[in-house]
Design a protein that fits this description.
Order of helices and strands of chain A: EHEHEHEEEEHEEHEH
Number of helices of chain A: 6
Number of strands of chain A: 10
Largest sheet of chain A: 5 strands, mixed
CATH architecture of the domain at 21-50 and 111-250 in chain A: 2-Layer Sandwich
Oligomer: homodimer
CATH topology of the domain at 21-50 and 111-250 in chain A: 60s Ribosomal Protein L30, Chain: A
Amino acid sequence: MAVKFSIEGVEGLPEISRGDDLAALVAGAVDLADGDILVVTSKVVSKSEGRVVQADDREAAIAAETVRVVATREHEGGVTRIVENRQGIIGAAAGVDASNAPHGTVLLLPIDPDASARALATGIRALTGATVGVILSDTLGRPWREGQTDIAIGAAGVHVFDDLRGQADASGKPLVVTMPCVADEVAGAAELVKGKASRIPVAVVRGLGRFVGDLDLPGARSIQRPAERDLFRIGADEAYNEGYRDGFDEAQAEGPLNPAG
Amino acid sequence: MAVKFSIEGVEGLPEISRGDDLAALVAGAVDLADGDILVVTSKVVSKSEGRVVQADDREAAIAAETVRVVATREHEGGVTRIVENRQGIIGAAAGVDASNAPHGTVLLLPIDPDASARALATGIRALTGATVGVILSDTLGRPWREGQTDIAIGAAGVHVFDDLRGQADASGKPLVVTMPCVADEVAGAAELVKGKASRIPVAVVRGLGRFVGDLDLPGARSIQRPAERDLFRIGADEAYNEGYRDGFDEAQAEGPLNPAG
């Protein structure tokens, strides 16, 4: 087990535009070796793939990206709408975001972030000869805790989990359910050098080569818990209201003379 | 802005027991400099504080630690019970855990993790002369995503958020709501060198000194979102059932001849 690793922001990348060869740009900007993991802000992948729409079309874009509304709340600044998007990711505004987008535009997430990650990893491996992994990251809020963390929305050539189930802890007891999400932890760590206010969309992680593997390993989609197995699949208010309607209808159907149903 | 940092597991620490001077042990095990951040697995703090109970008392300990039941689900292996504990942390079994605990025992979380972090930071700063930050970490599951990540349950001498609100992105647009949770990202990164199956309960982060500050900065408790502002404050099934009962009762109170209420 490695006991040390480092994360470094990749400087000197140009502003990315539609059609840019991101694999070639990254491979040319940093020296890479076997076992390195590249963490790429999904926004630059969106830019290279032309996933940009006019800001006027923002609401329509959000609607088009939304598969399922998870929770909404009105507040002073408007409406917070937490949705599951086409990529299966739960977050605000379906990942449609104006920050770091060209003026007058908003960026959509890559259509298939795992496929984008795989294309990048394949390209960079071919150009450099180095067996690297690639994680695409995005910045998302989360239940229960304030602030955001960067998480993995795409991955290729890396084990997204450190599956310890069945192994033993230091005292010999089995670690029944322990399965740290390496990809999310690496994505969050890379945020600490990339930042939001700077132009450093790519970081390289050195020293975690034990998590690098084949390009056909499960991607970040495998991190997403299916809604039917999620205790928090919809917001508390939405669930309450759904229950209220069902309970009200049921009581009316039963009638007051037959309360036992 | 630093563009590189490293994380290293601190090797050579002994098994920790009640009453051990953790600050002295850590200060003696690793060279520290201004701006270093120590990420300490909360379990070793629990051990040094004697937060250990017999395994037979596990259920009683969970009940005593629980402030509020957030969600429960029965499954083959028993019941998953997600609760808010006395520390305000939402997780399974109120943080009461048998892994890496002495045989026949379970560990409780420190009573006040921010206070424990502050005592550690104060002690280590005094012993070494280095202005370090301290984060206490624990391993928790989360909604929507499989696996666990390490997050910050205690903090002292570090900015737990990188508060960018009001700053501009690289293209000059304001970052209205962006507030990365540095403490959680650092805790997760440290998990990658500490691991669950090894005896490395402490990691040192070098290169993120811009986040190190006064000992009276807000602790990890400030990361916890108050339930009344949380869209996912209780599980979907629990909220549905509560709504169902209320709707049913309301319809019965109104009666069939007065459906408009």
